[in-house]
Amino acid sequence: MTPAPSATSIQKDTEPNSTQNVFGFPKQDGYTLSHWLQEVQGNPLLNHLTTPELPQSADVVIIGSGMTGTLVAKHYIETWPEKTVVVLEAREFCSGATGRNAGHCKPDQWRGFDRYEKAFGAEQALKILENEHQTWSDLVAYVTPPEDFAGYNGLQNSFGVLLPNGGLFSINPRSTTGGPILFGGHNPGQHELERWLQKNPERRTDDGLAGFEAVTEAVQEFAESQFLGWPAAPTNHPEIYSDRWSGIIALSADGVPFIGELPGLAGQWVCAGHHGQLIIWRFRYYSGMARIFTAAPGLVKLMGGGSWADTRLPEVYQITPSRIKRLHDDYSEESSGLTRL
Ligand SMILES: Cc1cc2nc3c(=O)[nH]c(=O)nc-3n(C[C@H](O)[C@H](O)[C@H](O)COP(=O)(O)OP(=O)(O)OC[C@H]3O[C@@H](n4cnc5c(N)ncnc54)[C@H](O)[C@@H]3O)c2cc1C
């Protein structure tokens, strides 16, 4: 096992004083509907039940029907077809981050070695980049349509525009002509949103926030100043910027996911903290949801009694008592007002 990095080598994703512990269950109503969720409203799969009543028992109970829950279920069933699986979802199918993200599902095969080396050492940094390559292969295998499948235009490219101040607009055109264009990322208006969230920490776990003016204005200003012909286009009226939604991203304090059996809680497993693609936070890039394509099967191997080596994941992704303690101490140190080295 690779030695743990020192606490001082770990960079954090939290703002200096964003130390309030914020917890919350998913909002039962009043959550915003993303572009994707709007498109599937009324689809019977959203509230699908395979049995009329909740089963009294199952071999495995998965909490959450996002990409993590569904991919864990898929790999579990493929590995043990005779076992029973129950997926519990608090709201509609994929109504969490999976159903409300910017849609950039891309492994990050090339970037980040320096940052990972600084945080975790060269060996782990190489393993992380190897994992990104594996993620790319697994993701491509998953989304490649069958040869006889024609007319599918969902796999268009998406773009990221880096701003001089390190911010980013992610742009996702969903159609070649006349279709919606989705803007996401970490744009200039987001700084004001972050300041507002500092003052309203309870809203951090609230995906009912339907738009924030500074963000909307930043998108409008960017589109009108940077897209040729956009200001004079007949479609350019204020309402086109009003289709907005919010979501909750799970970030780990050291920038890599938590995978494995929960320390001290035998039989309970976690696969979480996947971050979001193309979020640039102090010039850091994250693989985001793509990595779930290797994280989920890795977890299933562990659930079946496999060793960490069997997962082929970097050791620094594993949830261990020492990692939790290190992050906790680092976090506490910051919240106590001590300056971090
Ligand atoms: C606005 C936004 C933009 C993003 N953009 C990108 C992007 O462009 N690229 C990228 O790679 N990543 C992006 N992400 C991150 C990405 O969406 C997540 O990493 C990924 O979807 C996480 O999947 P998950 O299954 O782990 O979590 P989720 O999709 O959040 O699934 C968790 C599920 O568990 C349910 N749940 C929670 N608690 C309970 C409970 N107690 N009981 C029952 N059910 C429960 C929730 O309702 C939810 O459906 C973005 C996220 C957001 C919010």
UniProtKB/TrEMBL annotation:
Domain FAD dependent oxidoreductase: from-to ranges: 59-113
Recorded superkingdom: Eukaryota
Record's GO cellular component terms: cytoplasm
SUPFAM superfamilies: FAD/NAD(P)-binding domain
Pfam families the record matches: DAO
Region (Disordered): 1-21
Endpoints of the signal sequence: none
InterPro entries noted in UniProt: FAD-dep_OxRdtase (IPR006076), FAD/NAD-bd_sf (IPR036188)
Protein name as catalogued: FAD dependent oxidoreductase domain-containing protein
